Amino acid sequence: MDKISNAKLENKMFANRVSLALIFILLLIFILILRLFNLQISNYDYYTEESLGNQMRTLPITPARGRIFDRYGKIIADNQLAYRLTLNPEKTKNIPATLLALKEFGLINDKDITTFKKNKSRYKKFHNIPLKYNLTEKQVAEFLVSNQFIGIDIESYFHRVYPNNESSVHVVGYVARMNKKDKAQYDKKAYAGTSFVGKVGIEKQYETLLHGKNGKKQIEHNVLGRVISTKIIQNPQQGSNLYLSIDLDLQKKAESLLKGRRGAIVAIDVTNGEVLTMVSMPIYNPNWFVNGISHEKYKKLQTSQDIPQLNRAIQGLYPPGSTIKPMVALAGLEQGLITAKTQVYCPGFFKLPNVKRKFNDWKRSGHGMVDVKDAIAQSCDVFFYDLADKMGIDNLYNGLKHFNFGKRTGIDIPGEQAGILPSKTWKKIHKNKPWYLGETLIIGIGQGFMTTTPLQLAYTTATIANKGVIIQPKLLKSIQTPEGKITEVKIGSKKQIPIKDIHNWEDVIEGMRQTVHTLKGSASRLNKNLKYSLAGKTGTAQVFGLDSEERYIADNLQEHLRDHALFTGFAPIENPKIAIAVIVENAGDGSDKAAPLAKELLDLYFDKQSKRLYTSKTLAQ
What we know:
38% helix, five-stranded antiparallel β-sheet, 22 helices, Penicillin-binding protein 2a (Domain 2), alpha+beta, seven-stranded mixed β-sheet, 20% strand
């Protein structure tokens, strides 16, 4: 017997099925519309480029890096046309096999392969990724004759070179391959196609000026990947050329004076803060880093006890020793705690009331009665022990902070250290101990917790020469645009130390004059055949403290425990032009080991000035 149909139920089921079908169709239409919107509107540019990519590619053109010169136009950092081996991942079917074949061919090594794998992720699949830089002419010729590698090409590029090798490395720095940190630091678009950036020194400080602007080229290729044509859409703009304030002749002279030693020499133009010489020894060759330093050379640098990569001029922290005495004397005079006529008797030691310990003078037999000028000229410790005792650490700190001790000078080079100007607060924070009176005394002669850099010493010496005018030091003298226009860099910031009596400054300068120009002066040997007036201050900084009954005997100590030799000065006294600071590590007496080096450099400076003046007058006639 047939079942009786239920028309109502069947109609309901049919309606449900139609509804589901309509919903499904509408959903498909919505998905299709969404996809079309994504293709035609949201990602139109991307898919247009991808579709054209089968035929056209737009690639960046890396600009030539700006060159670096000294103040007289002598080249310090240059560019040289070179060749590099590249791999295109889109064209290379079996990358591991290709790399192995290139290795067997002798074009690359394991280090190159490792570097390639690290850098691969920062390139697009159609980019030519560098495999090997600075190929020899023989390698280029052999490759071009028997090119059997698909996707492997040779490209020309500008290779950074430092023609003076080690000279001025701590100023100019060097470039090397970009790493992850560099990629995060610089604009991705501006640095597309860039492989090298400045790592230290001026190369790092003025990276964006030196880099220039990328160009663009359009490459057309066929379905097999072969390039049909190349069209330059936008020419790259070369980086700006930089002229530094340093004098390359003075640099090389200073390096020769410190050869075989550890130390630093800094000379500053007193009138405008331009750094004429900034040398740190020992030095190293920046060319080693450009294409990747070898493991052997890097290990040699890293394990050297002389730390050649340390820029001692701005990063070396040393006790200033007796070179601090002119500044201490000025603080005492300006605060009214002593006058130019104040005299102190020096028996060869100083004692605090009710304290057994003696604070010895460098001259154990004593200097007798001395005033402030004598104390500076003869470097009498006892006078400055007594002055520091009168001042107390608070007044001493307040007087010295005017000279910016304990702060960076703000020079335009990365890595500058601030040094330490200690105080009660500083010791509480850093040592969690109270301040002791004896510590005040040794700060008065530049020992104890106090540290400075050679740059700071030259900077403060220039401030004395300027009678309280502080000028921020700088290394960049002028900028030359790609169009050839040269713009002078403005003088650094200026400020004036508050002055109560200008005679106090004149008295201190007179004491520094007597240091060189009188028989009792600690640098009197410099006066022989001296053709200009020189105000100076010798210093000997202890590496470790001695008990009051101990005597310093250099021959009984390991070399790294011996005193540092220091000298600071400026010339000519009547119209100051140049200030200098010299530090020779573990060399001993400043008057014997540091002062003569300063004189040799100053002799060259003034000899060059005389010749340039003579040439200028001759041309004018």
